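Below is our example:
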Amino acid sequence: MASTSDIKNGLCIKYNNDIYKIIEFLHVKPGKGPAFVRTKLRSLTNGKVLDNTFSAGHKIEEVRVENHKFQYLYPEGDLFHFMNTETFEQISLNKNILDSPGLLKEGENVMVSINTETDLPLSVDMPASVVLEVTYAEPGIKGNTATNATKSATVETGATVNVPLFINEGDKIKIDTTSGSYMERVKE
């Protein structure tokens, strides 16, 4: 059993007969009253996000997980197929376990958290950013730059990302996987 002082991003816990991963947390010590921890939890079974507050010292049941490096192979409907890079064992995961499946490129390496008690995959941690090629982008209109104007562009995985007007088809761009937003243009 762990307590609220052990809470950190990425920790998996059992709560309300489900397994949750802590996405965000904030220790709060108000001037009046006891301290508490405000958390944002994501269910690893259905992907729903839940806001919860734990009082200081509250006992939480931690789930033991092991992280393994997997390579993304290919999609098949709502299933995504991965291969363990050490044992070459293949697994299939449902689309809702992934944070941003639209940004996952074939051959990409990810970290898969596996519950040590049941040997079931719990979550997939993608790299912080991915570099993808733009396959379709509307042409930017000259003189349309009074503010930070953006346009939508389609990348090689099929995802749509808002990009600045100067991005064209064939450009490679870096995308933040947590927010799905444009970061910068990558030069070869």
Summary: DSSP finds no helices and 16 strands in the chain.
